[in-house]
Write a structure and sequence with these properties.
Strand order of the largest sheet: 15-25-24-17-18-19-20-16
Structural class: alpha/beta
Number of helices: 37
Bound molecules: adenosine-5'-diphosphate, magnesium ion
Radius of gyration: 33 Å
Oligomer: single chain
Largest sheet: 8 strands, mixed
Helix content: 40-55%
Shape: elongated
Strand content: 15-25%
Number of strands: 34
Length: 906
């Protein structure tokens, strides 16, 4: 037997079902399923996605030959159920031809309705229905849609309007009416003539009159549209494979344009924006297909409740509402009642919120589509939790249904959607850190601090940012950079702060001197208002109203549920008590990474740091470090208090010293004055610290091993702080982490200094506290020799930022120039600094964990790179058996959910 390429449905039976989405497309599979469960759906058939692939590979002729019989049988099937004949001049069967891939895909061919009409069949349709206007309305719609999507007739230029639209507008103008429904049969007959002329003028051929020719042309157009540029681009953007194809659905028409007792509409079983369990939707009387969405007329609300809410928003009186915008519930109570029953049935059956399309023909209800409804993050959470408590889904399904990344939307302030709809977008960059921010443009970090101290809301606009800018970034409402990727300094720091950030908005030109930022067609100066949409990467003109996100009790309930199923726990990367507290509220169970260097930039500290760097000998360094000690100690005390009862991993100094000295002459001069030395001496020192490749240079434990006094000071601060807060009754759990180990010996030396210093402090204080000594695994050699290193280390924390950098040999700060191109070329699937490269870098992580545990079964293993907050990477960490992941405070809930999902997906 030859392969089956066409699947029929109708009359309560179907050859397909919802599990066959890959073969029948989402639309086709669900049309079949609805038939199976007794929902009224017009009969039809689906040509498989495989035939679309064949069409692309083997061409039209061969493909059509192989499906010709089946399509003809399919039409017979519809004829039998509808008791009408295709191409019958007395009582014609008309069909719609609808595309439908496995994943919803705008950009594909649009639907053609009323196919099968010509000058003869339109007469039959008019006679049989006793409604001449309806017949000609259907005919003009058919020519327009077919002309549009099959024959490719479109507006000439971007500013012109579609010729068919122009023609119907002219007809309405001539008659002096506003609505399509006000055109009568004669007007429509004239319009059909005009439409046919448009077709002839644009294509040089007559509109095809043979229904079979129309049908095959339409099928070809659907298959052909799979390869059009729009569809291609959409798939690229959304990571949809190019080889899955689309199905074609051919389905008997039902008519919502048959008069005042007919209608068409779309509905949602729950509110897609808020998640409220409220059936809602819009409809139009005497209309067809997409009139509702296309905004041909103002659509009306389906439910009375929805209608009342709608008039309130639009400032319309109840009287006017009843007269002009009555609900379907009021207008067609019987059909409405049935729609409610079906809506409930479908939601229960699919156990998820559904998005429905329906048509009422002369009082009789038909369903034309059901699919899982798209929703906001807020709605996603609420619907999942509601459905759990309603008993529609179980705990496991609830957890798996919530998308970790979408939780992000719930944690940051949001723009008011109405204000956003009216906004002007100036430029687009990367949505580096989500959220919504409005403020005045400021170009310099110190000024951002000054302005914000005066109470101004500012957006820090930079070509790129550096560690010197951190406090300015902290003071700003949002950060915009013209350069840099998703893991640029600005992006990483902003995410850590939970601050809205757009990075790499390349069309923006920044002139620091003139203090202006410009893009095509517009220029802005310091002090002008702009807004950033960190969820989309859109830079918006002026001030857009925001509102606090609604953090309902559902959020807490979901997090509790995560804890019930997860194996791994989540820590946070935090350097301040405020961040630690916030992270703890989000459920962080400790600090996985405290970067001590961030603390060195604050206030007067940088002076002491610079003094240490400039010192010529150990004695000089020790003198400067002594000044830093009390400040560091105080920092750590704050962290321990915030994390009372939870572990706090503190990393010893990591960056090259060069990052702490000023590079601009103005600042160098200041420094010279402060230190009482000459500018040239400062310059010389700065010069001597500069390295060709600082990321591979004098940093990490190489600093601690060449200047042991730094490790000594930091250890002392860590231990003394712990003892101080212990005396207050705080349960401090320090974990000292040595960065950038490549050889076991490096750790051995550092550990010795740490343990000796701690012992000294214990001796001085006549008391002690338990602490751990461990290391980052971030150099490939460390992962390869993890078994040796684990003989010394009590814990491992995978620093996957550096590990990725060194495994790929991509400089994190320079990769922006080619990563995008590499993705386009298909060399890289993702930015490896965002999504852990499981195949390559992942091997090192897996091996490091396994080897480490082989020597030290008690070894605690975690991750503290950016990947610790990225869902697919978190799942990988679960699989290799890590104890915890650590991420920035605002990613903690996301990581918790991803960790729980990982435990369930196994
Ligand atoms: P899309 O994928 O863009 O939603 P559809 O194929 O669902 O396109 O169709 C567009 C519109 O036409 C929808 O409103 C749908 O309900 C309507 N429609 C499609 N087929 C028929 C039909 N056989 N009878 C009546 N309306 C139809
Ligand atoms: Mg459409
Ligand atoms: Mg649809």
């Amino acid at each position: 037997m030859s392969k089956k390429n066409v699947y029929t449905f109708g009359g309560g039976k179907a050859e397909g079902n919802t599990s066959m989405k890959a073969l029948l497309g989402g639309k086709g599979a669900n049309l079949a399923e609805m038939n199976q469960i007794g929902v009224p759906v017009p009969a039809g058939f689906t040509v498989t996605t495989e035939m679309c692939i064949a069409y692309g590979k083997e061409g039209k002729e061969k493909t059509f030959t192989s499906i010709k019989k089946e399509v003809e049988t399919g039409i017979k099937h519809i004829e039998k159920i509808m008791n009408k004949k295709f191409n019958d001049p007395a009582d014609p069967l008309l069909v719609s031809v609808r595309s439908g891939a496995a994943v919803s895909m705008p950009g594909m061919m649009d639907t053609v309705l009323n196919l099968g009409l010509n000058d003869q069949t339109v007469q039959g349709l008019a006679q049989k229905s006793g409604n001449e206007r309806f017949a000609w309305d259907s005919y003009r719609r058919f020519i327009q849609m077919f002309g549009d999507v099959v024959m490719g007739i479109e507006a000439e230029g971007k500013e012109d309007i579609d010729p068919f639209e122009a023609a119907i507008q002219a007809a309405k103008d001539t008659k002096g009416v506003m609505q399509d429904t006000e055109l009568d049969a004669d007007d429509l007959k004239t319009l059909v003539k005009t439409y046919k002329k448009i077709v002839r003028d644009h294509t040089g051929r007559d509109f095809p009159t043979d229904p079979w020719e129309q049908l095959w042309d339409a099928i070809a157009a659907v298959f052909g549209s799979w390869d059009n540029e729009r569809a291609h681009r959409y798939r690229e953007l959304n990571n949809i494979p190019h080889d899955i194809g689309t199905a074609v659905n051919v389905q008997a028409m039902v008519y919502g344009n048959m008069g005042e007792n007919s209608a068409t509409g779309v509905a949602f079983t729950r509110d897609a924006a808020t998640g409220e369990n409220l059936f809602n939707g819009e409809y139009l009387i005497n209309a067809q297909g997409e009139d509702v969405v296309a905004g041909v007329r103002t659509p009306q609300q389906i439910t009375l409740e929805g209608s009342r809410r709608w008039v309130q928003l639009n400032n319309i009186s109840e009287q006017e509402r009843k007269a002009k915008y009555p609900s379907l519930e009021e207008m067609m109570p019987a059909a409405y009642k049935e729609l409610r029953q079906i809506e409930e049935k479908l939601e229960k059956h699919y156990a998820d919120m559904q998005d429905l399309e329906f048509t009422i023909q002369d009082g009789r209800l038909w369903l034309l589509q059901t699919r899982t409804g798209k929703r906001t993050g807020v709605a996603m959470l609420r619907i999942a939790m509601d459905m759990l408590s309603e008993g529609i889904i179980d705990e496991k399904t609830t957890l798996l249904r919530v998308e970790p990344n979408k939780l992000d939307e719930l944690l940051h302030p949001v723009f008011d959607p109405e204000a956003l709809a009216k906004a002007t977008v100036l430029a687009k960059g990367l949505p580096a850190s989500p959220g919504a921010a409005s403020g005045k443009i400021v170009f310099f970090a110190d000024e951002a601090e000054e302005w914000s101290a005066r109470g101004e809301a500012v957006i820090l606009v930079r070509i790129e940012t550096s560690p010197e800018d951190v406090s300015g970034m902290n003071a700003a409402r949002g950060i915009l950079t013209a350069r840099g990727g998703m893991t640029s300094h600005a992006a990483v720091v902003a995410r850590g702060m939970g601050k809205c950030c757009i990075s790499g908005a390349g069309t923006i030109k920044i002139d620091y001197k003139k203090r202006t930022m410009s893009m095509e067609g517009a220029s802005f100066k310091e002090g002008d208002w702009i807004s950033l949409n960190g969820n989309t990467g859109e830079v918006i003109e002026g001030k857009v109203a925001t509102r606090e996100p609604e953090m309902s009790g559902d959020f807490g309930k979901l997090m509790k549920l995560c804890d019930k199923y997860t194996r791994m726990y989540v820590r946070t990367n935090a350097d301040t008590p405020e961040d630690s507290k916030r992270a703890r509220e989000f459920g962080a169970r400790g600090i996985g990474l405290c970067r001590t260097e961030h603390m060195f930039f604050e206030g007067d500290r940088i002076k002491a740091v610079r003094e240490m760097i400039l010192a010529d000998d150990e004695a000089g360094r020790r003198k400067a470090l002594k000044k830093l000690l009390p400040m560091q100690r105080e920092d750590f005390e704050g962290l321990y208090r915030a994390m009372d009862g939870l572990p706090v991993t503190i990393r010893l100094l990591d960056p090259p010293l060069h990052e702490f000295v000023p590079h601009e002459e103005k600042n160098q001069q200041e420094m010279a004055k402060e230190m009482g030395i000459s500018l040239s001496e400062v310059k010389q020192k700065v010069e001597s610290l500069s390295e060709f490749n600082p990321m591979l240079g004098h940093r990490g434990c190489r600093l601690g091993n060449t200047y042991p006094e730094i490790t000594e000071m930091q250890t002392r601060a860590i231990i003394e702080a712990a003892l101080n807060v212990q005396a207050e009754g705080v349960d401090a759990q320090p974990e000292i982490m040595v960065p950038l180990i490549g050889k076991k010996e490096e750790l051995v030396l550092q550990e010795k200094i740490i343990r000796e210093t701690a012992a000294k402090v214990f001796e001085e204080r006549k008391t002690s506290i338990p602490f751990l000594v461990g290391t980052m695994i971030e150099i490939p050699r460390a992962a390869l020799t993890a078994d040796e290193i684990a003989e010394v280390a009590e814990f491992f924390s995978f620093g996957t930022n550096d590990l990725t950098q060194m495994t790929f040999g991509y400089s994190r700060d320079d990769a922006g120039s080619f990563l995008g191109i590499y993705k386009d070329l298909g060399i890289l699937e993702n930015d490896p600094f965002q999504v852990l490269d499981q195949v390559g870098v992942g091997q090192l992580v897996e091996m490091g964990t396994r080897k480490g545990r082989s020597k030290n079964p008690k070894l605690k293993v975690g991750i503290c790179g950016e990947h610790g907050g990225e869902p697919s990477s978190v799942k990988f960490c679960h699989q290799v058996g890590m104890d915890y992941v650590s991420c920035s405070p605002f990613r903690v809930p996301i990581a918790r959910l991803a960790a729980a999902q990982a435990a369930l997906e196994k």
